[in-house]
Amino acid sequence: MKEDLLAAWEETYKKGQLTLWIFLSLKEGPKYVTELQESIHLFSKGTIRAEEQSLYRTLRKFYHLKMVDFSTGKGYKGPDRKYYQLTPLGEALLKSFVERNILLFFEEPLKALLLS
Amino acid sequence: MKIISKNLLLFAALLFVYTVLFRFGLSSLLTAEKYIWLWVIAFLYGAAIFATAWMTGRRDGMENFLFDAGLRWSLTTFLVWGGVSEAWFLLGLGARQESIRVVHITLLIWSGFLVLHFILFLVLRKRTIKGIYKSDIFK
Fold it and tell me: What is the CATH number of the domain that holds A51?
């Protein structure tokens, strides 16, 4: 029962999180899609698994809205890769989002409640 | 975003050429009473406009006809077609069977659709950013 409820909660919770994980991974540095996918998996300790197609679709939207940009670089034994990076708009967006929605968990009384 | 972009100007220039050619063909064929060919040039004219609008519009970020670029392209088509057609008759280049009244009625009906398009554009503008629904951006 508890495991089922937790899984249902997590499924809903994770749905809106892809953007945050993409932005955090790109803040670390430019990445091509497979690298981004691996980075998200690593950062989230395996709790977030983003499909490649889903990442491409999302990055296309973000590129259209000028939140990310890309440059092409050599691929390993294959065609050139697109290395995505955050634009100044993307960086500013991430900063505002984190300030308004994430940092409050690091302040009292929430911090104490989360750790208790 | 520019309201009058390079792509829009290119579209307007090509549309001007197509419309002059179309009006010339239309009046010539009517005068020669070769009515069957009217369908051919009307189809070619429509196809040329569609293809040109598609190419130039996409380069200007037009992903949906109802959004910003779609409205600008639609208004440009109205103005160029209307301008050339009016001038055609004012210069006395129309065929005997043609009437400027038809142009006026067409422009009147067309302007009604343009107003409708503008209202839809205003509604959608509130719900979208650069042609993407706000609710879909971070989905």
Answer: 1.10.10.10
Q: Which domain covers residue B88, as residue numbers?
A: 6-137
Q: Is B99 a residue whose pLDDT tops 70?
A: yes
Residue A54 inside a domain? The answer is yes
Between CA B56 and CA A19 the distance in angstroms is: 32
Reported ipTM: the value is 0.73
What pLDDT does residue B4 have? 81
CB-based contacts of B65, cutoff 8 Å, min separation 6: B74
Q: How far apart are CA B14 and CA B35, in angstroms?
A: 26
Model pLDDT, residue B66: 66
Shortest Cα–Cα distance, B132 to chain A (Å): 8
Residue of A nearest to B137 (CA): A61
pTM attached to this predicted model: 0.66
Which chain B positions have a beta carbon within 8 Å of A16's beta carbon?
138
What total number of domains does chain A contain? 1
Token reading at B87: 């001038």
Domain count, chain B: 1
